[in-house]
Amino acid sequence: MNSKRSLSAERVYWSSMIGNLALALLKGIVGYFSNSKALLGDALYAASDAASALSQRFSFREKQGMGVRSQSQEARGPAVSVVFAILLIMSALQLAVSSVMSMAGSEPTAPRLYVLVVAFAALVLKESLFQYEYRHIKKIDKQQAQKNVGEHRFSLYCSLTALLGMIGAMAGNALNFGWLLYMDAAAGLLISCFVLRKGYGLIVQSVYGPRLRELGAHELQQYMETIQRVHGIVTVESLKATAQAKTVSIHVMISVGPRITVQDAQEIADRAKLLLLSRFTQVTDVTIHFTPYHSSYPYKSNYELPESHTPSIIQ
């Protein structure tokens, strides 16, 4: 089953990389020969999407334990992503300078109609590629699929910005509004800022790894149920867990009987910690603090307090 999921993910990531690189190449060639700064910027962002798919592929292989063992080979994936990100940042800076020079120089020329047609067709192909990627990634990693939706939103903004810039320049040429001719270069300058943001994010992700994510209530349920089975724990006051890549760290505050010793309370906390570490392989760090239980609480627990004859929860 895991093998099928891995092969499916590999196909999706490779399709995303190849598709975005092809779109970047198409937009780049047309943008270069038509001198459209907006389309050149859109091409750079499509290249950044390909670099992002490459980074996700390495990350997925690492999560599934498919990576190779040597340190030099383990560092190869992040290193390649960093190199791509640096090239994107340099290209974005060059595009920004070129766009500013175009706006500061003589009146630019408007893109031709075929440039707009290519940009619109590329937008449709890009959306189709994303829908294919989203449907398959959602079956494998829902969290990554939701993250891709947010990143795709910026990609869509870039493509729409490029289209508006080219349409504005073409409208200025048709209506003899000289100031509208600068919209193409202005769109290129704005898109270069998007590319800089994407390049910086790729570097941060490659160097520092995935960001910490706090688990939601649904994901915490299995840990909560496990802790509540430990004899001696009256209630779980708080439970927080953070995930990074394939590891989970848990921080728990429990309440114990108010008349037991500190040593007994520590033993209870140690049993709960050992149970979590042994039952869940993804849990690598558990911190448990304890506090005396207040008997005024209106519910029962799995620990029977002294001077209480109310039946407790059976273990």
Describe this structure as you would to a colleague.
The structure is a single chain. Helices cover 67% and strands 11% of the residues. It is built from nine helices and four strands. It is elongated and about 90 Å long. Residues 65-75 and 308-315 have low confidence and may be disordered.
Tell me the distance between the termini: 35 Å
Helix-and-strand structural type: alpha+beta
Shape label: elongated
What profile does the largest beta sheet have? 4 strands, mixed
Strand order of the largest sheet: 1-2-3-4
Q: Indicate the percent of residues in helices.
A: 55-70%
Mean pLDDT: 81
Helix-strand topology string: HHHHHHHEHEEHE
What radius of gyration results from the CA coordinates?
A: 28 Å
Q: Low-confidence runs (pLDDT<50, min 5 residues)?
A: 65-75, 308-315
What's the total helix number?
9
The fraction of residues in strands falls at 5-15%
- In total, how many beta strands? 4
Q: How would you summarize what this structure contains?
A:
The chain contains 9 helices and 4 strands. It is of the alpha+beta class and 315 residues long. The relative contact order is 0.11.
Write out key terms for the chains shown:
67% helix; 315 residues; disordered C terminus; alpha+beta; 9 helices; 4 strands; single chain; elongated
Topology:
Layout lengths: L1 H33 L2 H27 L7 H4 L1 H29 L8 H28 L1 H34 L7 H26 L4 E2 L2 H12 L4 E12 L2 E10 L5 H18 L3 E10 L23
